[in-house]
Amino acid sequence: MNIYVCIKQVPDTEASILVKEGRSINESNVKWIISPYDEYAIEEALKLKEKLTGSKVTALCLGPERVQNALRTALAMGVDAAVHIDGGAALDAQGTARALAHVIRSDKEFGVTFLGRQAIDDDACQVHLLLAEELAIPAATNVLAFACDGQKVRVEREIGGGTREVIEMSVPCVVAAAKGLNTPRYASMMGIMKAKKIEIRRVALAETGVDEAQNKVRLLKLSAPAEKPQGRMIPGEPAEAVRELVRLLREEAKVL
Amino acid sequence: MAKIGLYIELQDGVFKKSNRELLSLARKGDHAVHAVIFCADVRPYLEELQGVQTVIQVSGADLSYQPDRYACTLATIIEEFQLDACCAIYSAQGKDLFPRLAAKIKSGLVSDCLSVDLEKRQALKPVYSGKLLAEYQVEGGRALFTVRPNVVPVTPAAGGQPEVKSASLHDGEPRTRIVQVMQSAAQKVDLTEAEIIVSGGRAMKAQENFCLLEDMARVLDAGVGASRAAVDAGFASADMQVGQTGKVVNPKLYIACGISGAIQHFVGMKTSKVIVAINKDPEAPIFKKADYGIVGDLFTVLPLLKEELKKALG
Ligand SMILES: Cc1cc2nc3c(=O)[nH]c(=O)nc-3n(C[C@H](O)[C@H](O)[C@H](O)COP(=O)(O)OP(=O)(O)OC[C@H]3O[C@@H](n4cnc5c(N)ncnc54)[C@H](O)[C@@H]3O)c2cc1C
Ligand SMILES: Nc1ncnc2c1ncn2[C@@H]1O[C@H](COP(=O)(O)O)[C@@H](O)[C@H]1O
Q1: Among A44, A53, A103, A175, which has the minimal tally of Cβ within 10 Å of its Cβ?
Q2: What is the three-class DSSP state of B195?
Q3: Under a CB-based contact definition with an 8 Å cutoff, are residues A167 and A154 in contact?
């Protein structure tokens, strides 16, 4: 099966994010990583490849030059091929999905495509489902359990309060990963060496026929949220402190 | 005057609390509000929907949630009633349904909104895990928004009885088929919509000790959350994790017990209206983020707190 995995490169979870000129962020001290949910997507893609002999995993990433590093990391984890869609940093979710779909569709035998349930920069929570609609194939998001026999896919997803939906789909389909699906592997030394020799295929955004002028959602402004004032420590013996806390929650904060 | 559609979400026939927030949002302007409900009989919900211009009742043989059918039905309704903008709750279902709808009607969607200007089609939403806020404009076509629970102040329903119209469920064969819904054995509160959450970290030490939190949660009618360290150690299940790779929660009260306050946890609960931290280390970073802090051993503090809450609320 030709398996695909779409990954996004995002600032490290610890990075402090500063606004630059109203609509972008200051990238000067940012360390870039693969968005955490996309690591679960890569792992599940690799597990599926191991299960279905003769399969191949291709990683896709849309973004500027720096995203080649994210693709290198995916290759080092065991992905077989990588495609860099060059550009499109300001595309909206639908534009991104259409560009990704363009590449996947050019492979007549695409099977399961894995994504993360959410990218932790724009937190849009959309590209996976938009991609599936664009390809006119089934999709499930927030997936915690995945099984596939080559033709049929069965997944479980969490829908709140621990309740799970069981979903059945036929291949090709889209699966968006949540934490809990698996434990992503680390790249081995051998994997890193091997990855260096693989050529990343570059696709210019223009080739996909998508451009930012078609955006339906436009970013007007980024801003830092108001900081919370420093809170209050409640002193005293535990019994006394607890009594005071409950009083404050009722009378001052009015949340009880 | 804009024509606004609201996707009213029912859970096992129960009118979800966050629908009131959608209704309050739509009431703020001078809009013609259309509430869409998938159910066999809208009458039980009409009191909540007072003042809404039109209630669109979607009926069909099997109304159980199937994303493709629901999305196709909504797409038809939006076209038929010429709705300018449509809102849903940013719930598990909203997250699943609205992106599919957006693709079907080729319109822009802003998800997880903290506020929405329906007239201007602008919305504010958290990005970079809440480290920044982004303001978006939806251009052309229809405008779609999903709204984070517990952010819109609720105003009472008022006004005349809505006119009820009917629509039928799209009955094509769904591509994506939900074959079963498995309730968790312990009927848990959905954290993303909970009003109060008590959360435990690595310091809970064992799965059994989570009963300390569950006892207190029962008194408060709260949900129980956990840090990733507690989930990874097997003390709590994955669906309980709060934070960057878990759930983003927004309760009015969040009580963090034995949680250090790492950035990845904080981004998942920072918008809680009031944060209480209980930690034995006075230097724990969580205290810098909490509204109220108690330094102490949680195994001493929690039982006392539960009793005190019982007294106060009993
Ligand atoms: C990519 C990525 C994603 C992540 N996503 C998440 C996420 O979604 N959610 C999340 O929570 N974390 C996440 N993390 C992990 C995060 O960085 C922290 O490691 C984690 O939150 C720590 O959990 P903790 O506070 O329970 O444990 P610790 O940091 O070990 O803190 C335990 C605290 O308990 C206190 N304590 C100990 N004993 C007692 C006692 N008897 N009474 C009172 N207090 C006591 C200690 O003083 C300490 O402050 C992520 C990390 C990465 C790298
Ligand atoms: N620029 C991109 N390149 C590749 N995959 C992407 C890109 N943006 C989003 N995705 C995928 O879509 C998922 C959801 O992203 P989002 O809708 O932005 O939250 C991510 O977890 C990725 O798997």
Answers
A1: A53
A2: coil
A3: yes
> What's the one-letter identity of residue A255?
V
Percent of chain A whose pLDDT exceeds 70: 100
* Ligand with an atom nearest the CA of residue B259: 1
Q: Give the pLDDT confidence of A183-214 residue by residue, as tens digits.
A: 999 999 999 999 999 999 999 999 999 999 99
Residue A36 touches partner B, C-beta closer than 8 Å: yes
Q: What domains are there in chain A, each with its CATH number? A: 2-214 (3.40.50.620), 226-256 (no CATH)
Residues of chain B with CATH 3.40.50.620: 2-168
The pLDDT score that the predictor gives to residue B197 is 98
Q: Which two tokens stand for residue A180?
A: 């809990």
Place of tokens 């869409």: B36
Q: To which residue do tokens 């949220």 refer?
A: A225
Give CA angle at A181 (B207, A40), nearest 5°.
125
Nearest to A157 by CA among A124, A128, A133: A128
Chain centroid, CA A225 distance in Å: 24
Q: What is the mean pLDDT of residues A28-52?
A: 97
Question: What pLDDT is stored for residue B314 in this prediction?
Answer: 79
Is the CB of B120 inside 8 Å of chain A's CB atoms?
Answer: no
Which CATH number does B196-313 carry?
3.40.50.1220
**How far off is chain A from B208, nearest CA to CA, in Å?**
18
- Looking at residue B165, its pLDDT comes to 98
Q: Which atom of ligand 1 is nearest the CA belonging to B263?
A: 17
Q: Is B264 on the interface with A (CB under 8 A)?
A: yes
Of the pLDDT bands very low, low, confident and very high (cuts 50, 70, 90), residue A228 is confident
**Separation of A233 CA from ligand 2 center, angstroms?**
41
The interface predicted TM-score of the complex, written ipTM, equals 0.95
Q: Which residues of chain B have pLDDT under 50?
A: none
Residues 6+ away with beta carbon under 8 Å from B258: B200, B201, B202, B203, B204, B278, B279, B280, B298
Among candidates A17, A133, A168 on the partner chain, residue whose Cβ is nearest the Cβ of B177? A168
- Tens of pLDDT, residues A47-74: 999 999 999 999 999 999 999 999 999 9
In the predicted structure, residue A32 carries a pLDDT above the cut 80: yes
Which numbered atom of ligand 1 lies nearest the CA of B278? 43
How many angstroms from the chain centroid is the CA of residue B74? 20
Separation of alpha carbons B100 and B82, rounded Å:
19
